Amino acid sequence: MSANGSPTGQQPTATYESAFLKACRREPVPHTPVWFMRQAGRSLPEYRKVREGIPMLESCMRPELVTEITLQPVRRHNVDAAIYFSDIVVPLKAIGIDLDIKPGVGPVVERPIRTRADLAQLRDLTPEDVSYVTEAIGLLTRELGPTPLIGFAGAPFTLASYLVEGGPSRTYENAKAMMYGDPELWADLLDRLAEITAAFLKVQIEAGASAVQLFDSWVGALAPADYRRSVMPASSKVFEAVAGYGVPRIHFGVGTGELLKLMGEAGADVVGVDWRVPLDEAARRVGPGKALQGNLDPTVLFATREAVEAKTREVLDAAAGLEGHVFNLGHGVMPSTDPDALTRLVEYVHTQTAR
User: Fold this and answer.
1) What is the per-residue pLDDT across 36-48, written as a single tens digit (0 to 9) for each?
2) Which residue in 142, 150, 137, 146 sits closest to 35, CA to CA?
3) What phi-psi label fits residue 90: left (phi over 0), alpha (psi between -120 and 50 degrees) or beta?
4) Catalytic site residue 42?
5) Catalytic: 98?
6) Which residues pair with 213 in a beta bridge?
7) What global pTM score does this model have?
8) Which contiguous run of DSSP H or E holds residue 296?
9) Which residues are registered as beta bridge partners of 328?
10) Closest residue by Cα to residue 175 from 164, 167, 184, 185
């Protein structure tokens, strides 16, 4: 049985027939499906209320809270898919890495990985390490009904960049120094992270996630040749590890216009595109056989309603000839975004693309 709800010999479930999963499979859809990265988050007052006084990582480990936060944008915006509320560093925390998410800063690692001896910090991830994920997804799939749930994880390069730098970075000098100066150590680091990431995605799929997205948020910092040689093998390993489940696999990064073809080749069924490359051009770069996801600039939502609709129309027009299109922003929802603007955007896309 595949975790997307279409077991062999049985009728597909309502989740399997959803607009989101159809678009991921490049099948005809009743309307272009919509969801937003960071849709369950800081832009929603109800999110801020339930998270008040609860540290980020702790909130990711409370199944009832995760369920409520994940459901909030589905209720408010009528999006076509829910994204599991978590953080890319959750599996690292689960295996004992000493890290914390500091407000206004991001993930901070107490002991950065800089030597081969430091790799000992990275043990295998087991389902028991993240039992709260299994519990939360069980709660969510019962509540969501026909609405698909997207599981997610951080890609090996982005996780490595945090682990080696010790926190967020604009230049990635330590990570790149290891990649260029000690390629064997770098390869071993990414390989271990690929195994941890794959294990984390398997837990989510086996618990009921209908699709998964691999966030390689910072991989746009690399040249294509470096990506192909030093990153793509680990990303491919993650995608291959979950291929047998039959769920759509989405790959997203920021500033990756020059990497789109390679990111598709890494094994994704759907390639996420940020706002810098029009979707018709992105399709040319990626090549046939892949659906695309994106790609409205998140800052457009601060403009007038007329401007939002005009820019959305541009995205939809560029996507008109695609094999499959999932409408999304070109990155995450910004914290000060008006939630009503997101609700109107979903309605506009659904109305304009109704078939």
Assistant:
1) 999 998 899 999 9
2) 150
3) alpha
4) yes
5) no
6) 152, 250
7) 0.95
8) strand 291-296
9) 295
10) 164
